[in-house]
Amino acid sequence: MRPRTLLVAMMALWVSAAMSVACSPLETTSPVTGTTIEEAGTAAPGPAGLPEYAYRSAQAVRGYQVAIAEKELLSVLPCYCGCGQDAENYENLADCFFVPDGDFNSHAANCQICLEQAEDAARWKLEGLTTKEIRDRTDREYEGRGKPTDTPPIA
Q1: What is the Cα–Cα distance from 8 to 67, expressed in whole angstroms?
Q2: Is the confidence at residue 82, as pLDDT, over 50?
């Protein structure tokens, strides 16, 4: 085989592989609730269901589902997205998903770090880690990604 033909064949194979990865379907099931994005999508916007902005991606839906199911856990975890710079409104990861009156906060829907942290915390809990172990792991895994919230340590 000529070098040019080999190069073209290799590039075609690489493009094909890249497309299959890039176009693979998104994970659409919550790791905590087991609810699919399609099931979550039937909820009415607002306090009775997820708000419209939570449907911007499958990951956002999963993040808000985790936040609902694990609000207590997220409330003892610092957020590392940088929202800690606004200490008046953000004290922990739960604040990225909920405002003080209990309604939803749109911040997390557009924040990759908040969504990743929520999913990681839920996964680590399912793996059997204690709340303190989840906090310690969160601090190790996310340190340096942004100014964390000033969340009190777990004794």
Answers
A1: 48
A2: yes
